[in-house]
Amino acid sequence: MFKILLICALAALVAANENAEVKELINDVNPDGFKTVLSLSDGTASQAVGDVHGNIDGVFEWVSPEGVHVRVAYKADENGYQPTSDLLPVGPPIPEAILKSLAWIQAHPSKE
């Protein structure tokens, strides 16, 4: 299922960049996984490598209309989709009182 979404996302990247030329396009599918690479002349790019177990490592990047280079790396595995980017929002730090409570709970496990 994820492979279909990835291919659709690549097609959407190409369609959104009608004036960009394809510099590189690789779609290798093997019995033990796949590798896909798309690079456009406007700086838009996508790469992904997947294995037979459904684990995928990838990255996609583009230049926003404001001229900001956007890069998102991701891993998709048994723990779900895990994107990383300097532009993704980050939650607030865990309050000290909560950290102390968690430490106390760990030090005093339930007897049940």
TrEMBL record:
Keywords: Cuticle, Signal. Residues 1-16 form the signal peptide. InterPro entries: CHIT_BIND_RR_consensus (IPR031311), Cuticle_Struct_Prot (IPR050468), Insect_cuticle (IPR000618). GO terms for molecular function: structural constituent of chitin-based larval cuticle. GO terms for cellular component: chitin-based extracellular matrix. This is Larval cuticle protein III/IV. It comes from Drosophila madeirensis (Fruit fly).
